[in-house]
Write a structure and sequence with these properties.
- It is built from three helices and five strands, in the order E-E-E-H-H-E-E-H.
- It has helices at about 60-65, 70-75, 105-130; strands at about 5-15, 35-40, 45-55, 80-85, 95.
- A hairpin with a 5-residue loop joins strand 2 (about 35-40) and strand 3.
- The longest helix has 26 residues, at about 105-130.
């Protein structure tokens, strides 16, 4: 309850840009790409989509997003969005434990539920990328 969206990023492959400053589009795999970040609801509707250069980290992408300064207005408590462990934990962000203890079933169940909720963004990206293959 109270989960409004899932947030995630993906890389969209590019041919090498013609500009001299193409290095902005080099990602961590040394491929050319842009980074797309999306808020996706439970029905796989993309609520917000933003783009940046390929070499940007997920958390930096979120801080560069036009919604970031207004995050507490769009996600007032008790509302939140789910994200992966690359994002910083804030009052409007719910994420799985990075290194969950194997012996605690409650923490494992919580992390599993958050990961399942977050998969809506990954599924939406998969469907979006299929359109251009």
């Amino acid at each position: 309850p109270f989960c409004l969206a899932s947030l995630d990023c993906t890389h969209i492959a590019l041919k090498r840009p013609e500009q001299a400053d193409y290095f902005h589009f080099v990602d961590r795999f040394e491929d050319y790409s842009v980074t797309a970040q999306a808020f996706v609801d439970a029905n796989l509707n993309i609520l917000n989509l933003s783009f940046n250069s390929g070499g940007i980290h997920d958390s930096a992408m979120w801080k560069a997003c036009p919604l970031y300064p207004f995050r507490f207005r769009f996600f007032p408590q008790p509302y939140y969005f789910v994200a992966d462990t690359a994002y910083s934990l804030e009052t409007c962000t719910m994420k799985a434990f990075a290194n969950e203890p194997q012996q605690d079933p409650a923490i494992k169940a919580f992390s599993r539920a958050v990961r399942r909720s977050r998969n809506t963004a990954e599924r939406a990206f998969g469907l979006l990328k299929l359109r251009w293959r």
